[in-house]
Every structure is written in C-alpha cells, then in structure tokens.
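Bench log, entry 3. Co-assembly request; chain sequences pasted below exactly as received.
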Amino acid sequence: MYRVEIAKAVRRWRTWILAAGFVAIPTLFVVALVLTSEQPEPGEGPPFLALVEINGVFASLVGLSVIQPFFLPLATGLLAGDAIAGESSGGTLRYLLVRPVGRLRLLGVKYASVVTQVFAAVVIVALTGLAAGGLAYGIGPLPTLSGTTLAVGPALLRLAGAALYLVLGMAGLVAVGLLFSTLTDSGPGATAATVGIYIVMEVLDALPALRIIHPYLLSHHAQAFVDLFRSPIALDGITRGVIVDAGYILVFLVLTAVLFNRKDVTS
Amino acid sequence: MSVLAARNLTKHYGDQVVVDDLNLTVERGELYGFLGPNGAGKSTTIRMTLGLVFPTSGSIEVCDVPVFTRVRSGDPLRLVGAVVEEPAFWDYLSGRRNLELFARAAGPPEDRTARLAQVGEVLKMVDLEDAGRKHVKAYSHGMRQRLGIARALLGAPELLVLDEPTNGLDPQGMREVRRLLRRLADDGVTVFVSSHLLSEVETMCDRVGVLSSGRLVADATPSSLRRASGSVVFEVDDGGVALGILRSLEGVVVEGEAAAEASSGAPARLRVRLGEGVSAARLNAALVGGGVGVGAVIPERQRLEDAFLSLTEEPDSHEWISNAG
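Structure output for the full assembly:
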C-alpha cells in the first residue's frame, strides 16, 4: 500500500510542480547573489546568507532556513491535508476501505507517504543549494558560528542532520494535518487549517507576552538546526525540539486513529 | 449457507432512523435486487454491509463472518467486490493503472502477482481492454461505470455489491451489464444489486427486496411481487349474468367501471380482483356452471412498478409480502 501511495504521487503533476518549486528556491537566491554585487550584511536576511559567498555549503543551509517558516509548512499542509480528504472528496476512500485496506493501515501509509514527500522536498533543497552554491562559490571547509572550522565531511554530515531535524518538525505538522484531513471531505479546507495552525503558532511564538506557551509550539524550535553549526554543537534547543515534535506526532496520530477508526464514511 | 445476512440492522443519525430493524438474507448464487425510493436507506444499508458506516445496533454477516469484528485473517470484506454509488477513480491515472493500484493496495503480498494478472481479465470482461490505457479523466460515464464493475470483480469475490450498476449506460450497455451479472450469478457468485429501474430488476433478479423508510416491506421473487395484488379479466358473452354470479361469490371484487358497463345479454370484459384463496379457475368454473360463455381468462399481471409504488407510498398500510424461506 505504501508503494501504491508513492506510485500515485510520482504520477501526479502536483508532485513535480512542488519539486520544481523546491529546486527553484535555492537556485534563485544563489543566482541573485552572483548577479548582484551588493554584499548582504551579516545578520541581514535569513541565517547564513552573508556566508554563502565564502562557501557554497552555506547556500544549502540558507535554503533550509528560507523554506522552514513558510514554503515547507505550506507544502506539508497541502500534502497532509489532502491525504485522506482528497480520497474522500474524490470518492476513492470508500473503494480503498472496501478493498479492504484497514483504516489504521491506511492512516499509517498516508502518514508515511506524506513524510516521505516532505523528506524529499528538504533533500531537494539541500542538494540544489549544495550544487548551486558549490558551482558558484566552491565547497570547502566550513567556518562554524563559533569561529572554528569544520572539514567538508563532518560539515555535510551536520547538513544532513539539519535536514532530518527539519523533516521531524514537519512530521509533527503532518500528524496535525492528517487529523484535519479525516475530519473534512475538502482537501483544500484541511490544507488551509493545517497551514493556518502553523502560522498561528508562528505568530504566537513572536508575542513575548505568551512566553509560557512558547516551548510547546511546534514552530518554536524549528530554527534550532542552526545550533548544529556551532562548535561544540549546542544540543539544548535541538533536544527540546525533538521532544516537542515527537509529542505532536504521538498525540495527533493517536487522536486521528481513534476518531477515524469509528467514523462513518459517507463520502 | 447465506452469503449476506443482516440481523436487526438499525442505523440512527441523531433522531432520524435511517434503517429500521432490517432483516435480510441472500443465499449463495442468488441475484438479489434491492429496490427503494431515494432516501429509503438503500445506500446506508449498502455502506453498513461494506463496513463503511457503523450500525447503531444489529449485525451484518458476510459468509457467516461478522463485518464489524475485524479479525485480520478472516476479514470478510476480502470476499466482497463493490460499486458504491458513483464509481470513483484516481482520474490522473489510466484505467488499467487504477486497477493495478487497487489490486496492490490490499490482500496478501504472496498473491499479488495473481491479483495483478487478473487486471487484464476483468478489463476484458467489461470490454475495456483498449480503453484501459486512457486516463480515467477522459472516460465517458458508461466507461467509468464498467471500470467500476471491473474493479469490483478483482480478487474473484464471492459477493458482489453493486449500487445502481447500469446508471448512465446506454440500452446496449445495460443489457451487457445485465448479462454479465446473470452469468456471474449462474457461475455461483452472489450478486446484491440496488436499482431504481424496476424493469431491470424484474428481468434480471431472482429475488427482490423493497425498502421503504428504512424498513424492508417486501422480499419475494419479482413474479410473486406482481401477483400479490393482481387481477384477472374475464371475457364473457353475457355481462349481466356473469356479474350476478361473480358478486355472489366471496372474496371477489368486480371493478366498478367494468361492472357498470355490463348489461344483460351483451358481451363484456369484467376485471376482477381476486381475494385470498380465490383462483381464476374457480371463478371460471362458477361462470361456466351458471351458463355464461367464457371467451378468455386473462390474468392481468400487475406491473412491478405498481406493486413497488403501492408498497412504498404508504409505508404503514401495506401487507408484508414474502415467499422467502
């Protein structure tokens, strides 16, 4: 069933349009940097932007920072919101269930397939950034935020870690989106709700008065992957991020499973 | 052995009773027609049969295994193929690819090759071999309908549950589907088919259930459904005398119009409604015995449509009709 989901995704235009978008993002800003003579000031723009011209690896990191607050949640919301609601509005949900594909199995497969696609998006951005940045500025040992230098091998390993951390955060959002997706027959509705929730969390995260709830917001620790490029690695934020993400995944998947398993499918 | 059995099946949505204490069994190899006006609860019943909607109370069994206690090994829905309302597909894929993915989606992995091998076979059965390569998006309604039946046939089901399978088909397509279903039933597949086309059910089904306001109000062969309130026409040479004889008999009603026109010495057609235990043969004997020449006795087979309407129009005032069991 997982292979069925992936086969469906590969044969959809939507998948390739999203993929093209994720190729375009790092490519565009590397091209922009190459074409303009203006140097970004340190601290200006997304993290690492000022460092891209020193080392192409940073293009990959800028790419991840750029997609994290908006493009990635948007794509995640689109895929997760559509996962079940798309099948029910199209009428294919009932035909899958009577095949019979078990309801919990269907949820599990949908979840895995969406996370796989989000993972692919992050990998695309990381690799495109690496390729574009490498072509433009070369790849070499990486200066860390703490002033030390990393060899290329360990630097790429940390880049992979950053990508995985980003995917984990989105895996939490996929669980939220999957719940919405089972509650409505409208894919766009579930998508809007999922993306909306994430944006609300980002807004709340920006309000100092709500500091008490900040640690529990999915978006709060999302940029903590930056800490991987310190020396030594500052694990504090990342650890908390992983715990919060795991909590969201667990709570929302269980809730979705319980509700969907007893739902009357009338679509 | 019954292939499908509903026992005291009931479904409430809030205060609304959609299916009300439904009892129904379908035997192996039977072609069962499930009739009812819109809103009678047909779809809800079908969805409960397929495990999509949970009954408020009562149970459904397929091949003697309850649908709603899913034991992994014995999941009875493996034995069922279905078309539920509109046939729906992944429109961005070809017909053949759709069937391949549905064949892969469920079932034991070791049988996958066998299931995939069936795809060509079922496409051939519904005459879509050539169109299988086209995107479903480009299919006509009739082609989608046939592709839906092909999908239902994947996995060689023991029970086919079809909701309005000939909807949107042209007359030739309808006939082909009817023949296909009849052939499947003759080969031992049990077919449960809902329809609003009475003529279709009449020509095709072994048994008909009529659902009205969530209750099963009839469960009988199509011919006995019609006969249940049938009339007989007598062509006699002397209307007046015949009328006198018929009126003296118990359980016989001569319909008003015919009676008014019957005059002594003149030939007449008398339309007689037969009460319980009264046969046309007995009336004929009485007429002949009374000296009336009977030219013809024509059993007036009530159209199934009339039987259907009389059953469903006033849900509380009809008699239960059954020749089952």
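Chain A has a mean pLDDT of 92. The first helix of chain A runs from residue 2 to 10.
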